[in-house]
Amino acid sequence: MSFADDIDGLRSWAPIPTGDGGISLGRWLLLEGNRYAVTGALLTVTFVSILTIGSVWTFEMHRLLVETQAVQTLLTTFLSGIILLVSIVVSINSIILSYDITHVSDQQDRIEGMMSFWRTLSKISDADESPTDPNTFLQVMADVIRRKARELEESTRGSEETFTREIQEYLDQIVGTAEHIENSLTNVRGGKFGVLWIGLEMDYGPLMSRSRRLKATDEDVLSDSGDDNVEELLQALELFATGREYFKTLYYNQEISELSRTLLVVSLPAIVVTASTILAINAQLLPEMWMFGMPPLLTFVSISFAVALSPFIVLTAYMLRVATVAQRTNGAGPFVLRS
């Protein structure tokens, strides 16, 4: 593996500039960043923020710890919130897993639907074997869509000039989309989500809508072969749309399961540290060691609050991407809301 490949692979762990010098911190935070890296970044920002704010009121921090119950009250609230948060997320994960715990007839219908999809895909792609992973599926579908577009272009030559110009513009859009998918698959780095996102970010709705409109309004202009080519192109787009929506199902199942696992791992240390901090404050067993050149009490409180907030930060890191994917891929229905 080359040094350039190593740098590309690190982009999921840090917002490294691309070859053209550009960098998108927002896109890295919402989509491309590894969720552990995003969690670490948000946790660092939280710790530094608390440390910075507390440094302005250094003497008041001692008074808060010694003379009032404010810090203990906040940490007690965080402790209760952590336990409640874990319970809610694990319950959500159980609901998602219940989809796989069904009657044998439901499992049979699911397998039959999968086999029907594979047979249709093999027929339209002229392939002996159907793709079983997102990368291969996207490559096959990009090739099929481009090929069907070229066949439609050949069948419409000699038609009316206005119609030919309209169909050419439409076909150029489809071919450009297919080539964009292929180029993106060649250059994708950063793991399996990068491959999934290539399929998820394709807005197939306008292409399918225009295909249906073309078939409905230009039946008199299209030849029999042209009409068949439009139908085959529309079928290819529908297959791609079906696979794309299934990508979302795979992604949500994987992301929620990983969130639950990460949250369970993080929550136990957070509960132990938070409970120990509350007991230490009540017993007046406060640290006397200086760290980072900051007062011991300020560092102690900042670390305690950052650890107590870590389960919520983990939830934030994962939900940012889940919500972004849900918002940007809401094109499966007959109506699409644009923000």
Could you explain the architecture of this structure?
- The chain is an all-alpha fold and 339 residues long.
- It has two domains: 41-98 and 256-328, no CATH class; 103-249, Four Helix Bundle (Hemerythrin (Met), subunit A), CATH 1.20.120.
- Helices cover 77% and strands 0% of the residues.
- The chain contains twelve helices and no strands.
- It has helices at 3-9, 25-32, 35-56, 58-67, 70-97, 104-125, 134-155, 161-187, 192-200, 205-217, 224-282, 296-328.
- Helix 5 runs parallel beside helix 12, helix 9 (192-200) packs across helix 11 and helix 11 packs antiparallel against helix 12 (296-328).
- The longest helix is centred in the C-terminal third of the chain and has 59 residues, at 224-282.
- The protein is elongated.
- The model has no long low-confidence stretch (mean pLDDT 79).
